[in-house]
Write a structure and sequence with these properties.
By secondary structure, the protein is mainly beta. The protein has 1 helix and 8 strands; from the N terminus they run ββαββββββ. Helices cover about 10% and strands about 30% of the residues. The strands form 2 sheets. Strands 2-1-7-5-6 form a 5-stranded mixed sheet, with helices on one face. Strands 4-3-8 form a 3-stranded mixed sheet, with no helix packed on it. The relative contact order is 0.29.
Amino acid sequence: MEISVDGEPVPGIAGQTVAGVLLAAGRLSWRTSRSGAPRGVFCGIGACFDCLVTVNGVPDVRACRRRAADGDEIRTQSRQEDA
């Protein structure tokens, strides 16, 4: 299985969550907060919203809850305020 993260191919294993694929690829964060702080998996069970990504054009998907599917297009998100 392979997904695309910000245009780059990332391999995964069937059944992994998006967060699992990203972590296995060595990515510890994939979103920034308003302050610019990096965010990735925090709780890992869908209770918080630190792991948000855009999946196939749908924003604010919790990466720890969404099973990755072959061909998924993942985009990282930023909540930084404009300076």
